[in-house]
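With this grant's support, the team has encoded backbone shapes as discrete tokens. A representative record is reproduced below.
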Amino acid sequence: MSNGSITNDKPVINAADKTLKVGDTFDPKADVTASDTEDGDLTSAIEVTANNVDTSKPGTYEVTYKVTDSDGNETTKTITVTVGTNNKPVIEAADKTLKVGDTFDPKAGVTASDTEDGDLTSAIEVTANNVDTTKAGTYQVSYKVTDSDGNEATKTITVTVGTNNKPVIEAADKTIKVGDTFDPKADVTASDAEDGDLTSAIEVTANNVDTTKAGTYQVSYKVTDSDGNEATKTITVTVSTNDKPVINAADKTLKVGDTFDPKAGVTASDAEDGDLTSAIEVTANNVDTTKAGTYQVSYKVTDSDGNEATKTITVTVRTNDKPVINAADKTLKVGDTFDPKAGVTASDTEDGDLTSAIEVTANTVDPTTAGTYKVTYKVTDSDGNETTKTITVIVEKETTGTITANDFTIGTDSYVKGTYTGDVAKVQLVVNGEAKQAITVTGNAYQYYAKDKILNATDEVYVVALDANGKELDRAQVNVKKPTAGTITANDFTIGTDGYVKGTYTGDVAKVQLVVNGEAKQAITVTGNAYQYYAKDKILNATDEVYVVALDANGKELDRTQVNVKKPTAGTITASDFTVGTDSYVKGTYTGDVAKVQLVVNGEAKQAITVTGNAYQYYAKDKILNATDEVYAVALDANGKELDRVQVNVKTPTAGTITTNDYVLGTDSYVTGDYTGDVAKVQLVVNDEVRQAITVTGNTYRYYAKNLITSVTDVVYAVALDANGKELDRKLVNIVQKITTGTVVPNDFQKGTDNYVTGTTTGDVAKISITVNGTEFSKIPVQADGTFSYYANNRILQVTDKVLVKGYDAQGNLLDSKEVKVTTKADTTGEIKLDSFKLGTDSYITGSYTGDIAKIRVTKADQTYSTIPVSGGTLKYYAKNIVASATDIVMVEGLNSAGKVVSTKQLNIYTADGTITANSFQIGTDTYVTGTYTGDVTRVGLEVNGKVQSAIPVTNNAYQYYAKNLITSADDVVYAIGYDSLGNELNRVPVSIAGLAPVTGTITLDAFKVGNDTYVTGAYTGDITKVALVVNGKEQATIPATGNAIKYYAADLITSKDDVVTMIGYAADGRQVTEATLSLSEVTGTIAADSYKITDGYLTGTYTGDVSRVSVEINGTELKTIPVSADNTYRYYLKGQVTSTTDTVKVYGKDALGNVLSEATVTLTE
């Protein structure tokens, strides 16, 4: 048996991008490993070829690594190291609203996060909480959280505990007409103190409204809030028959002095009441017949149901003016016919057209003799107003003349030229219907500059002869010509294939000629726009120089173009093997002039495909179905000519199996096994990740997997592939854990001299780590000879530090732990001096040093930050992210070249200072809180009623903070706060809040009579701009108030004199100005009926009080309502309605709104 072959791969460096904080220690080799398929672990051979990381400054840096295997294969890799700042954590907590009795968990829904530490929710502390869910009120909860760098964040939220009241349904009684659409939920709303708008939750529990019948109905509603509190309400819906009356009145025209009766010709009618003409009121009439003008008359009529109709007409009063004659002077030619009334009209403001009444009172015109004559006209209107007018008529002799025009060639001629005769005095050009400027001519010849006027041969051009008065005497068309022009094209000509040179032409081309190698061939006549010239015996070589020439009818050359002479097409094609059931495409390459590829299967030619480049693929999965199919790939040129064909080798699908041996973790380096059949490659799949395939021969394989299989929990498959990479079989690899043992032996570490903890290992120890004072640092691999070297100069800082070395196997299992003895060498000297650090302003710690100091580092509390080199006697260390408070204890240590601390000094920290001022804020006027600041103030924020708003950056010692939506009451408690660049509060001042200016005004209301009045009327003064009616505690719609008068429709709102009605006046900003009470009374009245003889025409009777209409009910059916007479009597036509003395007849007395005030039973007789 022979083993599978293994390729010679490059080694692989495993190094990931890293993110540090300013002040962190950075070991470029930490967690960086290298491995090779043949050499195994190459971590110890890694070189750092570039490293510009500076952990004292935020920024993005790069580290480059290199490793070379035993075959000389070299790999490099560059990672990015990001040094970030150290930000404060952030608490996410929102204000909450509860109800009395709710359970409250102050930490529910509160989270904290930090850029460096991630989720800090579990570290949140509640520092204050006065929430009492048994009482309604506003409370505060305060939170605090601190990140691993000691940065602290706080936040206070407001918790509002609200009461739990019943919801309220807002629904009013309604009146509609028969046939109206009724939506029981329209204009019905519900609200709840806790849940807000509950309109969508309203249920209609009862509804008997029938809009096809007049009557009174009820609708009942129910709504339940989230606490189970239920509210109900029932309204009354009245359905009545109620059409508006109609006023018939038309606009009128009068003359000054006419008599005018505003009611003349005006009528009114109503579907229920009939003729209401006598009830028409004239509500406005400003007609003045003594003055011309336009006036209006307004009418009003009200039916028995209180429906009111209005109409306004326009009355025009005209003046009594003289008529006007329209006649103009005229010019005739000798011999013309003359009608003195032709074109003469007359009109009058009152009488209109008076043309037919025109008289000719004088006429001296003689059209046979040239001269100047007069015609006089007269006309009289119906009022006796007379007008006269005289015109002048000139009779002229007739002018004559002729003109000629020479041809005009575009691009050659500049002038239209010709001759003229007779009375011609001017010449004009007309181009495409547009008359150009006329020129004066003398003699009998002219020339007219036309180069810029005649532009196309298709222009229609005339030259016009005019007499001295501009009268046209003659015109002649100008023959516009253009030079012949045209173009020609030629298709490619293939020798041995084509017989004709073919192409197209345009313009004046009439003949085509061939020129071959400078020899002009016979010209042929062409028509249409395409030609073909027989050239098979003229063009013999691909090197022939051939032109096709376009000629006009006279043989003038208009254009020529070279013919592209081509040799016959040629090309070849190849085809790769095609496996049935595996391949989808026939693939191959081609050369030469191949433009299309076609498949022929068992003699049947399939569709050709267009190809580009030099490779093709032809989809054949549905065309080649059996290994016995005879298949050819055919190469075609662009015209479909076959250039080559090749047979496709059709093969059957491949098959094979694979087995796997157990893999011992920690011992084995290769996955091994057997295979059969068409297996040509083996591939591993580790935890769903597909690895590189290796080529195998014989029937066994070995696959290097030491760096791939690292745990007994890994899921590994060996996959068998054929030569084309098709999967034939796969088997699971059984991974067995090896029992590992080993020891570590560390050497002593001399502080100030050594940079690395070194030592040796035995057994299965593959990685080691160091632990300093209980903190374990990252693991690194041991060398191939069992030794290790761990960089620890930045970890072991004191001789008293407790240091352990821990040994782990390849799977990370701890095998051994040993303590490292830490020693020191003789002292060195040196001293550092530090400048004071201004919190909020300074970013760097600065100072100087002396003696053996070569490096410095910073510590705060238990944290040590990165070490940086110093030179030149001065030091500068970035510490903006380290120094956070004036109370911080920050130490700076000076170290010698061996890393030993020789001097330590505490940093003196002092805070930034600054002040802020705030101008007063006027509610309703101001938008911004404004003011000034001094010192180190860089941001300004607001605190409103204990809630701190976000801070904004400021410049130029002045600020403005948008507060229109924050400060809404003069009782708000507001502070302006100045912060430094670190967010520390430097100063705060109260903001003086001025409330809105007071509003004043009064409302005076007229008394309202229920059942009679439709509108609430009155007057207002002061700042009132809107009014609303309040009926029985419910505020109705708000309407605008203008002109200091009030008119509010209330017929359907006020239904009883016992209603409590007030009117509220509002200012423009919505504030209430005043409220006035409306005085109510109601209509009263009685009705009496005379006895009625059933054969009579009218029922009569009397009424008192506010009765204004009556209706009659016969046997339960009510008839129409009619108005009563002004003398307290009424007449109701009943003839034929009452047929028996046993009928029950009632008469109803109603008010203006149709409400029944009184009823009487009618006594019937025969």
